[in-house]
Structure formats: C-alpha cells, structure tokens
Design goal:
The structure is a homotetramer of 354-residue chains. By secondary structure, the first copy, chain A, is an alpha/beta fold. Chain A folds into two domains: 210 residues, Medium-chain alcohol dehydrogenases, catalytic domain (Quinone Oxidoreductase, Chain A, domain 1, Alpha-Beta Complex), CATH 3.90.180.10; 138 residues, NAD(P)-binding Rossmann-like Domain (Rossmann fold). The model of chain A has no long low-confidence stretch (mean pLDDT 97).
Chain lengths: 354, 354, 354, 354
C-alpha cells in the first residue's frame, strides 16, 4: 500500500506531518496530487481544539492540484488535468443541493448543517500530497492554462466566502457598505462589494497593515476602531446608516456594531463563525420591526462556483496574490501554523507546497 | 372650532374618551369620518407605558371611514368615498419610499426607523370620530361596494403584517412552515402561509381557542406548547426542520424556538416587537454558517397594499371576520381595552364604532 | 437477454408495442418497473413527426414505478421502493445544474438546451414495462405510502410545468392572473396560480368541458374565446391589465393575447412549445419600454421537485385525479393515442398501466 | 407674464427656439432654471415625426438646474439649490409607483404605460431656460457640491437606462455579458455590466469610435459586426452562449442576435425602442422552453435613483464626461440636432447651455 505525507491532527495543539495511506478513487471519486494549498482560520480553531475533529484526520480544505486517479462514473476529465476544488464539495444530488443550498448538502439525503464541508472536517483534507475528492463530477474545476496555482488557490474558500457575503446581501449599484474586520475573509468581502457596484465601501479593523490592504482591495475609507468612534463615523459618512454591513470576524462586538450602523430596511450579511450566545440589542434592531435582514453564508462550493471565480481572476477583475504573503513546504507546515496563528510578520495567507 | 370625541392617552394606564379639536385637511391631506376601527396589541403597550407616546395623543391606527375633507393637491377622490387606510402611511416620495421601504418612510427625506407608522404614534390616531390622513394621495384606498367595513378593517394592520411575514419569507409551493403564537398577527401569518402555497403549516400556541382558530385559518397541525415537545414534534413532522418559521409574539422563547426548528438554509421571519436583548443561541444558528436568514417586517402600508388585500377578501381567498369577536362603541372603549388587555371571553379583536 | 414490452416510435404516425431489450442499471443508474405512466402532448408531436426522435426509441416521460435494479454509487434506496421520477432528469453535477438551471442540464459539462429532458427524447422512455433512470441519485423520489400512483403520476410533467409557469412569474398575494388555454398544462397553471395566492384567476379556452374543469382547478372567471372579446373582457375585469399572464398552448394568437392583456410592468409566463416565428406586436409591448418581462419555463425536474409536489398532494392542497379521465393497458396504447390525439370523449389525460 | 426661450416642436422636422411663457410652480411642483441639458435619441424620433407629440411642446428630458420656485407642499429644499431631475418623474403615490414600477406611473391612479415619462412628452421639457417639475418632492435630487453639472447631466436618462439594463438582467459576479450597440445607452449598459461584476463584457457595434469608447467604459472585447461573425465569435468566447445579453438599439437584427448568443437559462435585457413587429425566431428561443427570460426597462427615475447614480460618480466608480463630446448654447440647438442626428464628428452626446 503506497504512502504519502500529510498534516495530521492528533490532539489539541498537536499536529504533525506524518506518513499516512495514500487514497484511491472509488465510484464517483477522484484523487488529485496537491500542488498548492493554504491554511485557513478554521484550521487554527481545529488545532486549538475549538472545533472538534477526530484524531488522525488530515486537515486543510483549500486544494489546487493535478488529477492522479479518476473513479468510475466520472466523465470529461483526464489524468493530468490541473484542477481547483472548492472547500465545500456538494454532491449536487440531495434535497439541499437540488434546492440550491449546496453548502448544507446532505449527500444523497436531506439537509445536513454544514454538510458540504467535508475536507479536513469529516474526511481527510488538503494539507497532504494527495487528496481524495468525493462527488468529483460536481467538484473538479479545470484551471485555465493562463492562470497559476497562486492566482486561484484563495478562491477555494476565502474569496468564495467573502464574495458570497457581498452576494447574499444583494449589493446594488450605489449602495454604501461597511465591512467589519479586514482579515482574509473581510478583505475578500471588501473586494466583492467593489465588484458588485457599491459606491461607498468602508473597511474597519484595528491593524494598520490590514487597513492598507483593505484600500488595495477596494475600500474607499478605512477606520481603525482603536482611534475612531466607528458607529458615529459610519453614520456620518452614510447619511444615517449603511445599506449593507458585512460581519467578517465572528464576535459579539462586530456583529452588534454591524447592526448599529445599518439603516432601516438594510441587510446585515454575517460571515463570522460564532461561539456562545450572540446578542441582538433591541434598540439597534428597531425592536424587530425595522425591516432589517440578517443573512448568513457558508462558503459556496462546487465546480461552477470555482469556474466563475477563476473567470473573475482571468479577466483581471480581482487579484488575490497580495494576500498570499508567505510560502512554506508541507514539511514546514507547523512553522506556518505558528506564524499564521500568531499573526506574525504581517501574514495574511500562507502558501503550502507539498 | 368644531370638536370631536376621541380616545386620548393621558399617562401610563390612563386613557379617556374626551372632546378634542376636530382636524382639518391641509395640502396633500384628507380628513375621514371613522366608521369602524379596532384596538391593536401595540395600543396596549402604549397604554401600559411600555411604548412611549406623548400625553394628549389620540391613539389607534386601524381606520375605516368616509372622506369628509380633501386638501389641495389630492385628485381622484370625492367627499363621501368609503376608504380603508393602512396603519402605516408612507409618503411615497422620500428616499426610503422610493426604494420600496415604505414602512421606514422618512417623509420627504431619508430613512426613519418605523417612520411610516404615524397614526397614534407621532400624530393623532384612529380611535376617534375623525382622522387626519397625511399623504392622502398615497394612502386612501377606496373600498369596493360589495365589502363591508367589518370585512376590511383587519387588513389595515394585522392582515398586512401577518401576510407580510409570509411574504418576506418568500414561502414557496411545497414549503413546510411553522407559526409561533396564534394571536391576531400569528393567525394572519398562518392564513398568509396557506395563501402562498405552503404544503404543511404548523401552528403553535398555548390557548385552545386560538389553536382552534388556527385550524380555521389554515394550519394543518396545531401544537399546544403546554403539552407538546414543540422542537421534537416539529422536527419529526418536517423531516428534520421547517423551510420557514414565523415568529409572531416578540419573546426570547418563541424567537429561539423558531430558530431551533429551522432547517439549514431556512428563513426565520420575525414579526414580533422585542424588548431587551434578544439572544441567538449559536448551536441553533449553526455557529452562524447554516445559510439561515432572519428577516423582519413592519406592517406594509399604502393604498396599493390595501387594494390588494381587499381583493383577496372580495374574491373569497380569506375571511377575517371570525377574528372580530366583540363590538363596542367609542364611548365604551375603556371596557374594550380591559377585555382585550386581559384576553377575556376568548377575545381576538374588538370592533370599535364611533 | 431478457425482454420487455414497450411503445416504440418507428416512423411518422407509426408507433407499435414491441418486445425490446430490458435495460440494466450501470454506475449511477437504476431500473424501475413501471406501474403507471401517461401520454403527453409532446408525445403526440413526436408521433406526428413534428418533433424529431430517432426510429426505434421507446417514448414517454412520466413514470411511476418500483425500483428493480440499483447500479453502483446509489445510496439510500432499496429494491422495491415505490418511486416517482420527473420528466426531466438533471444530473445535478454540471454547470447548468449547479447554477440551478436543472432543465438545461449539460450532463457533467456546460449547458445544453433542454438537456434535462432525456426520457423518450435522447434515451428510452416510460411507455414500457421497465425504465432505465439515469443519474438515479438525483431523480428517484420515494412515494409516501398514503399516496396512490394515480395521485402522483401527473406531477412528473404537467403539474411541475404548470405550477412552474406560476412560480416563474413570481405570482404574489393579490395578483390578477390570466391563463391562456386550459389543457392539462393550463389547468395545472391555473391550480398553481391559486396555490400562490392570486386573488383573481381568469381561465381562457374554447372548450366547455375544459372551462368547467378550470373552475374546479381554481379559476374565478372563465372566458370562452369563441363568444367573448377576451382582450376587452380581461381589461375590464382587471382594471386595465393583468399582473401576470400565462401562455399554455404555444401559438401566436395565445402569446399575443397574453401580451395584450398584460399591464405595464407585468409578467408574461410562457409555457407553450412554439414553432416558426413568434411575433411580438410592438404596440402591445409598449414599444419595448413597458417594463414587461417574458419568462419561459421547461418542466422543473429532480427528486426534490417531485418530493415537494407530492407534499402538496399529500396535504390536500391539490388533487389532479379529475384530470386522469381514461385508463388503458400498455397493449392498448395505440388506442389511447388515438383518443388523446383527437381529443375524444372529453379526454384530458390517460392512465397507461403496463 | 414673464417669458423664456425654449426649443419648441412645431411639426415634423421643424423645431425652433422661441419665446414662450415661463412656468410657475403650483401645489407640489417646482420650477428650476436650467443650467445644463442635452439631446436624446428619443428627441430625434420626435423631431422626425416618428414619435408623436403635440405641436407647441417644449422638448427635452435631461435637466440640471437651480431651484427658482417651490410650490406649496414641498419641504426640505430651498430656492437656489442645485438639482438633477431624472428624465422620468414618478409621482410616488399611485398604484404603479407604490408597487415599485415608477416608470409606469399612473399619477395618483393605476398604471399608465410609460406614464412616468412626462418631460418633452406630455408636458413641457428641459430644452428651455426654465422647467416646471411635477411631483417635485419625489423628483428633485440635490447635487453634491463637489460634482459639476457636466458630471451629472447624463445620469438623468442614459446612465439610468443603461445601468438599468444591467440591473434588470440581475448580472452576477462572473457573468459573461454581450451588449449590442455602443451608442450612449449601450455604452452605459457596458459600464453598468462592469460595475455589477461581469467577468467578460463583449461590446458590439459597427463604428470604430464607439468601439474604442466601449473599451474605455468597460468592454473586454469589442466586435465590429461589419467584419466579424458576431454569433460565432460570441459563442466561442463564452463557451457556448452568454449569461446575459443587452439590446441597446431597438432593431430586429440586434434583438435576434441578442437571443441567438444567449445560453439556455440566460437573460436578454432589452433597452431598445422598437417599431413594427418584433420577431422571436423559435430556434434561437429553444421553441420557448429554454428557460430564457426577456426583460425590458424604461429609464428608472425619481430623486433616490438620481442620488444613487450621483454617488457612483462622486466616488469615482464611473465617469461619463468622455461621452459629452460637444457643447452648444440653447440658441444654437438646431445645429446641435443636425450634428447629433447625422452622427457627425464622432458625436456621442451634446451639452446644451441655456
């Protein structure tokens, strides 16, 4: 039985690059040889024991690679095709998928909360030499030859999520939009708001490097919450309240602020992963009758989503390479986790090359 | 100066039918002689001092009447026309109205939270012999001759709100819908869900009379929260979670339950008026990444809304008269408040005739 | 090699029940034993040579049956399960399907016009003892035990199409809707408009039996185009033009009338299959600037669609059995085609039992 | 009675700058002193007798000016305020307006086809020293001090229309869009598609100057229909058909091509004004069952629309000044019509200064 190296979660605060069994493709599956992947904030939660996965799991969910094996029932692909696979791998054939809720895929059955997220969660993930792709027909997105791995790897999760936050809010030409937190997801939400025609984009963070990057990604105004009275400033800039606010961190404070600066009838698009009780202050919520909308989005996946996102890159609409600040080999991945986890050296995203 | 009788809010727990000045129509306004009105749960909040209005205000916001005066700038109406006026009276000409957010009307300017609700809130209301209607061109809805006052009075607020809860949720043919609380608003939400093609409608309450009425208004199954494990029962009936839930009370418990029985990707449509902090349990909310939507609705108003609702009554799609359980004269309105406030005698809504 | 009987298209106006090879399930496929099917207007077009299919094809696309074989890669089903399969069998995994355009399925690749329609078109169909179901995971819808075959067979195509016409038009509570032609599809569009909350539904046809059935399915007013000035009458009944019109025949005249009675800003939902040039009279179209919308719909398919439609039947929202006017065995199917093709004996739909 | 100069339509091919009565503001109205206006293609149709207006009418519908008089019932404005007024002046208070169909405004009553277009159509227009603005509360949009007249004048009609074509098509991030004809409206549709996140924008025209301008406004690829096989080329570039096509001319040929290059399930957004019968070839239309949508748009108006468009200019999202190729005084307007009508000297739009 052939082996491969992979980053394995062992226990809280314990990961290790180990030799594990190399996967093989069954019916409807494919195996890809990973050429580039990255680390996500969610992976940090897993390593820190804040999100439970079983010991022995290979983690990571942002894969770029080359097709190595194709199982029965897959057509239109060849061994050697370069592909991007989304972090979310919907089956396309269950009640949730056929209703358009691809991220809540029930795999042949009904709905399963977050069921579309399998890599590095319920099955082995992408921080490895090889990756088994389930429901491959729905999830292998061929990479146009003119695009490099580095140009597309961030589409698998953070761009799909960030743009998704803008899309779920139905941003319209002329909208004012505020994005709370300018980490990788928030920066992509900022870029998404710009792509959709928002006329005023305000980026909020407390990190000067990230605020500078926010300007590069499309923010017209950036506010450092350490200096500014964010609520008052946004209300002034938007003439009373923003049309859309996007929460991209997952804390009570950012959620609450996102509600406080929203105009009546506006939409709060929430991308953060929350823990504990989230509170909605009734005053900011107009006692529940302000015609507000709160929408949540889990990273949209599937090969068509990836194809569309690659088109935006190919045609020069967005360039995410500035977010890929550091590069590591798979063997050095523990160092990469340290750097990323402690936000050292202005890190935004790290490239991992097996 | 001519006078009229009206129900005046004086102080907490103190209302009185008094002689006050009769209004006259300025530019863009009309005066109607009230022929039928009713009491709303919101009026109770006002009387109890839970929602602040200024002393001396005539309260009530559900008017049916006959045009008595027409100010300059109004066309297409004549003195004597029977009209229904919505609880919400948008100007049609401000930023909010021109964006379709009629309930958050800013009256010529931008957005104002709940700004479309003026009767018995920021200007004199409908529990009186005469009522000044602002922005009359946008708000006087002629009543078809074949409809009685009793058939249309509940459209002004509760039907518009209840149906609005179903509409904001975008209920589709075949959806499963749960309506929490079967008071007047919840009963109308139940009727609205039925009108929009929901295939399974579950009504929840703790009052047997209301549960019986819920069946009459369209519920397929009713659950008494005093006996049933509502969460478990709904999950069983819906195969894992409802497509849409409607909150029609305004409490932490109903809101939370409405979230707990929602499937991933589902919509919680909130109609209740909340006070204090509302909490979103992160487990029921799939940590914020279940593709859930929470939408809120303030009673849609304006003459076109009223026209549409009257058409649904005229064509026999819905009959709200069973909800009008009691009748009082304006002079007896304090008795009506007592009955309504204490939920005596199976009361749902009371008819007030000046 | 085992054999089965099936209705085979041989040449224009030539069909025959013959022995053909019985299908077997490959990867991702299933075979069902047909227990009930029917004949569609489209089958008539095929037999008459108006829609080309290759000689030797088994026709028919409305199957109810029992699972006989399950190929590799299918889970959640057992031999013997009773299932309904939609006329359209999307793969769920191509660009079109993942974008929600299931009827224009490209089977693993991009879009293919009408590509989701395979039964009796590009592969063997349902007028047979056995049927091979492609992409079975996405297309086998289990029938609730309380429903008979007769209650669900018409959901496969005509109800899904007719309701789809109402849904594509986004019918809202209080809309006025006109349905042109009250054949099986038009009758289901009428039922769909009723289900979605239209307050006024006008059914048009020239056949008294169908107009009577239209009333049963939800029409408030029926107009016989042989007697009535349909355009004038509809404009009068709707106060100047309908909010929505549905074309359910596929002729220049019905399409044009559907446009003439539409109000500015209204939606024409077209279900008909047209041949030759279709003309849009510029006057009825307000020279192209009346904010009109013309939407077209091919029968939505897939197991989730079928599940939802079965729920509407199970919960008593609609009963299509009155449309199933005649019953034939598979051996008698040529007689059934004659009756159906010549519209004898008040026929609407025929049940075919293998 | 004071007088003013204005461009008056007298008869087919006969316009003249004359002294006419200066307007005064009645209830709900305002008078503005025009500081900048322009000529629209529709004005050419009027002058050529192709669109009928009554003799003696002042034409033009794209006004920038300064408030000179305010009638009763208007609040929030002062004499001297600089304002932009949309070509379409909805009342905000009729059935159509309250339903969101502002361009089909019935002025207090129901729907009227194109009823929102009044300037230079049913009432005196903007090619004059002064202009009476009806429903002024809904239609006077204050110009931010940092914007010049030249920066905003094209928002009144062509940008609102062109962007509207992109908006009605619901363009999404990653869509491929083809815009047929790159006149002023088409160029704005191109800019609108770019603003909304289309990843591939193809502009079609037969005029080299306009194709160059199309690139400046956002087209990625331009095709000259005189050299290229547009249908084949677009199909190749889009991998089988565009997600959205926009028709911006109003001819059978552009409409038909816009349908031929559309993928199944795609949207044709039509902006052209058609005359005579428009034909839909059934092959390009997939016989009516390709899930295609055809949507039409009349220039969205009202002060909120103008405010939003001015925000896109103020924040640097779009700059329409390159389209304003020539400047004339009101006295020279007949020369301007000649130049514009004969498309001399690379003219796109002309500035007219009273």
């Amino acid at each position: 039985m052939s082996k491969m190296r992979a980053n394995v979660f062992l226990a809280k605060n314990k990961i290790e690059v180990r030799e594990v069994e190399r996967p093989h493709a069954g019916v409807g599956e494919a195996v890809i040889r990973i050429t580039l992947t990255t680390i996500c904030g969610t992976d940090l939660h897993i390593v820190r024991g804040e999100y439970p996965v079983k010991s022995g799991l290979v983690i990571g969910h942002e894969p770029v690679g080359v097709i190595e094996e194709l199982g029965e029932g897959i057509s239109g692909y060849e061994i050697g095709d370069r592909v991007l696979v989304g972090a979310i791998t919907p089956c396309g054939q269950c009640r949730a998928c056929l209703s358009g809720h691809l991220s809540q895929c029930g795999r042949g059955e009904g709905y399963e909360a977050l069921g579309g997220w399998r890599f590095g969660n319920s099955i082995n993930g992408a921080q490895a030499e090889y990756l088994l792709v389930p429901n491959a027909q729905a999830n292998l997105a061929k990479i146009p030859p003119e695009l490099t791995d580095e140009q597309v790897v961030l589409l698998a999760d953070i761009a799909s999520t960030g743009f998704g936050g803008a899309e779920s809010a139905n941003i319209r030409i002329g909208d004012s939009v505020v994005v709370f937190a300018q980490g990788p997801i928030g920066l992509c939400a900022t870029a998404g708001a710009k792509l959709m025609g928002a006329s005023l984009i305000i980026g909020i963070d407390g990190d000067e490097t990230r605020l500078q990057m926010a300007k590069k990604m499309g923010a017209d105004v950036v506010l450092d919450y350490r200096d500014a009275d964010v609520i008052a400033e946004v209300k002034k800039l938007t003439g009373g309240g923003a049309d859309v606010t996007i929460e991209a961190l997952g804390t009570q404070q950012t959620f609450e602020s996102a509600l406080r600066v929203l105009r009546p009838g506006g939409t709060l698009s929430s991308l953060g992963v929350y823990s504990g009780k989230l509170q909605i202050p009734y005053d900011a919520f107009a006692a529940g009758i302000g015609d507000h909308r709160i929408v949540t989005t889990l990273c949209p996946g599937g090969k068509e989503r990836m194809r569309r996102l690659m088109e935006t890159v190919r045609m020069g609409r967005v360039d995410l390479r500035p977010l890929l600040t550091h590069t590591f080999s798979l063997n050095q991945i523990c160092d990469a986790y340290d750097l990323f986890g402690e936000r050292l050296d202005g890190v935004l995203k790290v490239a991992i090359k097996p």
